[in-house]
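Throughout our pipeline, every protein is held as a single compact record rather than as scattered files. The remainder of this section carries one protein's record, kept here as part of the documentation.

===
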Amino acid sequence: MKSLNEEQSQVVVDFVAWGLAMHAYSERELVYRTNLVLAQIGANSLVQGLVGNTDTNLSDLTDKLVAIQDVSFEMGWQKDINRTQLLNIVTPTPDVLADEFERLYAVDPEQAVKYYYFISESVENVKVKDIARNIAFTHNSKYGDIEITINLSKPEKTTAEIKAAASAPKSSYPPTALDYTNEGYLGTVTAAPRLTHRFIRDDFSGETWGWHYSPYAYFEEHAIFVNFKRQAMEMGQRTFTRLMQIVTRYPMYMVGSNADLPIVGGSILSQEHYQGGRHEFPMMKADVKQTVQLPEYEDVTVSVLNWPMTAFKISSEYAAEVVAAAEFLRRTWENYSDESLMIHATSAEGDRQHTVTPIAQFKDGQYELYLVLRDNGTSSEYPMGIFHPHADVQHIKQENIGLIEVMGLAILPARLLNELEKVEDYLVDRAPLEEVAESHRDWAQTIKNTRQASPANVHEMVHEEVGKVFVHVLEDAGVYKSDEAGQAGLNRFIDYLTSAK
């Protein structure tokens, strides 16, 4: 055990002061919290009479406490647990957080959300420093500006950590990374520490849901809404109703759901969850291509967007009308086939293949629900999915096209950072083609044969070409293509939709 000098003592006092700023506790607990910090860093005394302040952000203070602690860890996950043990001392407990959130919400929902986000950023539940490493740019396309992100925020595991995780005992607790049992969980080699993890609990459709901010956010105030009931992802009227309930309670946010089928759905289909946040995605800015009049829903406006995927926008001042029209459209699509375009409602084995990706928001007094048509079918030519990124674009994106990509924000893998640098080197003759990743070589040669690259423009040029590829990715995933045959097929579906009962 060590005694702290004045500078170190000030760090402790400032750290504990952050708990006051976050309304985690009152001044009556300052001594208690201070002693918890001392115990965690292996100290037994500090200089008395210092006054705490929050001029230094909490993350930097935590860095300093870890340095004072002077303990080495073999694995990164052990360092992460130690860090969250410190931060948990000044983080509001679930009850305290919920009470303060509801108190603020009763006055102004916007203030409640800002408070919760302030907490989440401060205690590193939102990894601000890691997110800042991401590379982001836009690509101007015929559909509008498309957003591209190369995701560098998640730290890579070492070989030793990968081996340790592989040999670790299997555990069913928490059952998924989304489950409510993660709240306050210590963490292991295979499960991230969640000591500071907190849910805001809500009741939607008579079920308990909780939400929190994503640690590695892909967009502003990226939130995850989780059904505590632990049921699999589903799609239908109940889904649309809950999305409407969420944007009614949190009108500052959009919220959407991944589809409920494996090829066109998200990565965790076993746990029902939605994603939302404060962001206007490219799809939401898309022009209207045509309008659709549903005879049974006169209070609803239905539009088809000029978008690489087939996207309908349903809007009304009445949430229930939007839900009813959306469910009608979904059911119609679920049973619709068009053999000429390889669109099949069911597989050869009789499995359902049609679903939608829905996104809701409340804007200018209108409830809006976007429905993007999805088809889960495969074929001998496209075994990974007929409406999935095809082989010629998989060097950039081969993963499922989920909710976020559907709306025009590409989440591209970290491997591209170094791979694209090699492409740039090749285009300006700094490296031979053999140094370019094999998957990119045909693409790189095509660029070189059709464009004039220079050291001054090559970086921007490659970004532009990546953007073009991602547009093709979305077009591959679209059930009705932006060509004459695709438009004719879409018109046939709309005719069927408007005549259906």
Notes: The CA atoms of residues 379 and 443 lie 25 Å apart. The chain has 15 helices and 15 strands.
